[in-house]
Amino acid sequence: MVGPGRASSDQDRDAEAIGRGLGLAGATVVCGGLGGVMAAACRGARAGGGITVGLLPGDDRDEGNRWLDVAVATGLGEARNALVVRAADVVVAVGGEYGTLSEIALALKTGKPVVGLRSWGIDGMTSVGTADEAVTTALSLAGAAQPASATASSVLPDLDRRDSPRSPNHREQPGQTDQTDQTDPPAPPAGQTDAPDLPPDEPDRGGQSGRRLR
To answer: Is the domain covering 9-163 a CATH 3.10.580.10 domain?
Structure first.
């Protein structure tokens, strides 16, 4: 979702409605993380049960709006617009100033579909007249249309994002623990160690196997 950081009342309403529709469909809403259209979209997405991600221009995660589930402080300034576009399957623009125009241009240049609601009229964009149209069109273009009952909470049942503005508050269920079993393993029989025998010419290197996880 892209749009002005200082939104009009109509833009605020449209962005929230779009965010809610996307959240109900189980979509993740990625935005610039600040106010205006970005905050309204996150507010709506959270209300619909969706996940919200904000790619912030500065170095402080606390600058993000309070409806973000994930706040990424990029420190890139306006250059973070490129990250917002590249992270999306489809870009939805509500209204727009020059920053929004740059995101639309980047999306079109990289082949990302763009849906605009009362936004810039540029060849290659799909313009719609209502928030509902924006949701259905975006989901169709992204190939991610899902029943309205499919929410993010059904995908991540252990996250209750509404208990905290940003950090998920995990609640333990009966018989469930957040930590793996810490019980000490049984001691090996006398005269036996956990480390495999090594050939005489191959010293033990502290258990390093040479395999790297990336």
So the answer is: no
